[in-house]
Amino acid sequence: MFEIVKILYRELHYQIVRRNPMIANDERKFKSQLKNATSIKRGVGIQAGTFFFLGLMLAGGVAFAKDELQIGVMFASYAMIPFIFSLYITAVNSSYALSMGLFEPLKALPVKVGSLYLSELLLIDTIPAFTMMLPVVFVILFRHPTAGILALMWAVVGVFLGHTLGLIIYTVFGARTSEGTSRFGALKNLGKLIGVLLFMSIFYVGNYMQNYVREHIETIAPVFVKYSFAYPFSASSIFDPLQSLELLALYATLFGMLYVLTLKKLWGEIVEPTVSSTAVQKGAFKARKLPKVLALTLKDFKVVFRKSSMIAGLLIPVYFVLPQVFMALSRGEFSTMLATGLIFGLGWFSSIGADPVIKIDGKELDFLRTLPLTKKAFILSKSITMSAIPSATALAVIGIAHHYNGGEALYLLPHAFILPMMTSLTAMNYFYRYKGQEIGIPETNMGDIIVIFIIVGILFGIVGAPLLFMHGATGYAVSSAVGMVITGILVGMS
Amino acid sequence: MIEVENLAKTFGVTRAVNGISFKVHDGEIYGLLGPNGSGKSTTMKILAGILKPTAGRVLVDGIDAGRDPLKVKEIVGYVPETPVLYESLTPVEFFNFIGSIRNIPAEKLEERVNRLVEAFELKGYLHKYIGSLSFGTKQKISLISALLHDPRVLIMDESMNGLDPKSARILRELLLEFKSEGRSIVFSTHVLQLAEMICDRVGVIYNGEIIAEGTVDELKEFAHEESLEDVFLKLTESKDEIYTVIQALKESL
Lengths: 494, 253
Ligand SMILES: Nc1ncnc2c1ncn2[C@@H]1O[C@H](COP(=O)(O)OP(=O)(O)O)[C@@H](O)[C@H]1O
Ligand SMILES: [Mg+2]
Prior knowledge:
The complex is a heterodimer.
Chain A: H1 2-19, H2 21-24, H3 27-37, H4 40-63, H5 68-78, H6 80-99, H7 104-107, H8 115-124, H9 127-143, H10 145-174, H11 183-215, H12 217-226, H13 241-271, H14 292-305, H15 308-314, H16 316-331, H17 336-349, H18 354-358, H19 365-368, H20 375-405, H21 413-434, H22 446-469, H23 472-493
Helix pairs in contact in A: 1-3, 1-8, 4-9, 5-11, 5-12, 6-9, 6-10, 6-11, 8-13, 9-10, 10-13, 11-16, 14-20, 16-17, 17-20, 17-21, 20-21, 21-22, 21-23, 22-23
Chain B: E1 2-11, E2 14-24, E3 29-33, H1 40-47, E4 55-60, E5 63-64, H2 69-75, E6 76-79, H3 91-101, H4 106-119, H5 135-147, E7 153-157, H6 165-180, E8 184-188, H7 192-198, E9 201-206, E10 209-214, H8 216-223, H9 228-235, H10 239-252
Parallel strand pairs in B: 3-8, 3-9, 6-7, 7-8
Antiparallel strand pairs in B: 1-2, 1-4, 4-5, 9-10
Helix pairs in contact in B: 8-9
The complex binds adenosine-5'-diphosphate (ADP) and magnesium ion (MG).
C-alpha cells in the first residue's frame, strides 16, 4: 500500500519539477532538485527542517510573552500560518495530481485503488506546515504543560482544517479537466497570485502580528475571546481546557465528515472525469493587434499568471520591500526619504527577476525562433516584463508615502518607472548582447547576477547623486532627467 | 522557389546533413523522404531560417536563409514535427500574438483565421487553453499559425501524422490550392501513400545525403519496384533487414 503512495509521490513531484520552467530549463538545477523532490524522506525532510527553523523564530515571541493571555493570543495568530500553508499546498497538489493523470496507469492495473491513496499522498506534503508549529508548541508545553498539549492538538486540527478546505476549494473551483478561459479563469489566477503572496509574506505578517499584539493587547483580547469559536481565534482557548476540548471535538467531527465527503467526490472525479462543462464562448475570431514588443510582453504576463511557479519568482523583489513597509506601518510613519530609499533598493533588487523572466518561454522558444523577430524587440519586451512588477510595487510605495506626507512623494513618480527599467535593460543587454546569446535561454549563474548588480549599482549611484546635492523638487527633477538619459542609452544599445 | 546548394550541418561530431543539393520550383510540391535520423528536420529548419548552415547555401525566393533569416521567416510558413505552442494561451490569444508579431492587418488576420478554423473544425476550441487540447488539435493550431501570414513558401515537417482522415484531406486540398497559386511546398513524411498522391517530385535522404531524386514514377522505374514503399525500403537498404527481423519474430512466437 505504501509502495503505491511512494510511487505516486515520486511521479507527482517529478512532474511538478519538470513543469517548473525555472528549474526544467536548467539541467544542473533540474537534476539536483529532482533528487530531493522525488524522495519522500528528503523532500519532506528538507522542507520540514526549513519550516522548523522558521518556527523557532516564532517560538521566540512566545518564550518571552508576559502572561497567559498574551501567549494565547499569539498562539492563535500563529495558528493561521500552518492553516494557510496546508490549504495552499493541498489545493495546488490536488490540481497537479488530477491534471497530470497521476492515477491513470493504476486504473489499468489489477490493484484496488481508492481515495485513501489520494488522501495519504496529499497529507504527506502538509507535514512541513505542522513541523513549523512544533517549536511554538514545545515552548508552551514547557511553560504550561496542559496548554501545551492542547496547543499540539490545535496545531494538528489547524493543518487538517487547511487540508480539508483546500480539498473543498479544489473540488468546487478547479476539479474539472480541460479548462478554458472562463468566468472563473481570472478568479482562479487571482487566487493563485494571492496564494503565492500570502505564502511569501507569512513570516513578515507573523512578525508584524507579534508586535501588534504586544502593543494592542488590551483592545485585541476581547475580540479573540468573543469569537473564540472561529478558527484561528478558537486556538486562543488553550488556557481554558474544557472549552478548548469542546471546540476541538466540534472541529474534528465537523471537518472529519466534510473531509470524507470531499475525498469521495474528488475520487469520483478521478475515476470518471467530467470533461469541460464550462460554457465555452462560441463565436468568430476577433483580431486584436498590438505593437510587437507589447504583444510579447502581454504574452509573457499571460503565461506567468497562469503558472503559479513563475509568479513566485517574479515577486521576489516585492519580498524585499515587505518587511520595511510592515515596519514603517507599525510605527505609523513613512517619510519620503524612506520611500526614495525603498524605491532605489527595489529597483536594484529587481535584477534578481532576470532569471525567472528569461525562463518564461521554455521549449516555446523553438516557436519564437520561427517568427521574424528581432533581438531588439525581444530584449525590449523582456525588459518591460521584468520591470512591471517592481514598477507597480514602487507605485504602491509612493501611494503609501503620499498618504503620510502628501504631494512631496509624487516627485518620485518618474523613478518608479525609470529605475526598474534601467535594471531590466542592463540585465537583458548583458545576457543577450554582451554574452552574445541568440534569442534563447542563456545559462544564468550567481556570478552573472552579481555583475549585473554591480553595474546597476554604479548607474543608480549616478542617478541618485543629484538627490544628495540638490534639495526638494530640483534634486528629483535632475535625478529623473539623468535616469532618462541613461535609460535612453540602454534602449539604444539593445 | 528554393535552391539548396551543397548544404551541410554538423552538431558537434554528428554530421546531420552532409552536402545536399536540390531545387523546388514555384508551384511545385517536393517530398523529402527518409528514415528517422536521416537529416530531414535539420534540413527543413535551415530552409526556414531557424538553424544556420555549417556549409553550403540556401536561397528562398532569392534570399539567403543563412545570412538573412528574418527576411526568410517573413515569407516562409514552417510547421514543426511536434507542435510547440504556448500551452497556457488559448488559440485566440495565440493567433493574435502571431498576428501582432508578424504585423498582419486585423481584417486579413480575422478572415484567414475564421476560414481556417471553419475548415479544420476548431470553432469549439478557440477559447480553451492550448495545453488542454488533443495532439491532433494542437497540430491543426500549429498548421494554421504557419498559414496566417499567407506565406509564399510552405515547409512542413511530418505535420500530417496526427491529423484525422478528414483534416488530412482538407490539408491536401489546401496544398494543391497553394501549388496552383505558384507557391513552393516542401514536406517530409513517413506516410508514403500521401507522398505518392501529392508530390510532384521526391528526394530520398539517407544519412544526411540525397541518394535518389525524381518523380514517383521515375523512382519506381529506377529501383525496379512496384510501390513507393518498396522503393524507399530498397534505397535505404532496409528491405533485407526487415525480412530478417520478421523471420526472427516468427520463430520466437
Ligand atoms: N540539436 C541537435 N544536436 C545534436 N544532434 C542533433 C540535433 N538535431 C539533430 N541532431 C542529429 O542529427 C541527425 C539528423 O536529425 P534530424 O534532422 O532530426 O533527422 P530526421 O528529421 O530525419 O529524423 C540525427 O542523428 C540527430 O540525432
Ligand atoms: Mg524529423
